[in-house]
Structures are given as C-alpha cells and as structure tokens.
Fold this protein.
Amino acid sequence: MAETEKSAIIVGAVAGALIGAGLAVLVAAQEGSSLKDKFMNTVNLLKEQGTVLNERSQELKEKGQEVKGILQESVEVVREFKDEAASAASDIKSEVKAFKS
C-alpha cells in the first residue's frame, strides 16, 4: 500500500468515527428529550387522574355519609316500631288475661 492510501484510510476512519460520534450525541440528546417529554406527559396525566380520583373519593365520602344518616334514621324507626309492637303485645296479653278472669 502506498503512503497516500494509508493516510486516506486513516483519515476516513477518523472522519467516520467523528461523524458517528456526532450523530450518536445528536440522537442521544433527541432520545433524552423525547424520554423527558414522555415522562412529563405521564406525570401530567397522573396529576389529572389524581385530581379526578380525589373528586370521586370526596363524592363517595359524601354519599357514604348520606347512607349512614339514612341507616341511622331507619334504625330509629325500627326501634320505635319494636317498642310499639312490644307495648301492643303487652296490652293484648293484659286484655286476654282480663277476659279469661
């Protein structure tokens, strides 16, 4: 090989290495920013969904409080009914005893 051919091969290899390194830096930076964008989009989506979940949990909490109130009122009605039924049963027993005597 002639000296000029060796020089051309070395220059070509160095130029190829520099071009490859430059492209790698450009592509890596682009992928990094792309990755950052995807990450930020995911973070923003999670924030939005977190807000929606928080609102829905508040709604469920309010509905739970309403249901609790309704159940407490129902328990009171059942207790009153039970007391009235016991009183009526007692009155009937007394009347039956008085009738038998």
Summary: The mean pLDDT is 83. The chain is about 95% helix and 0% strand.
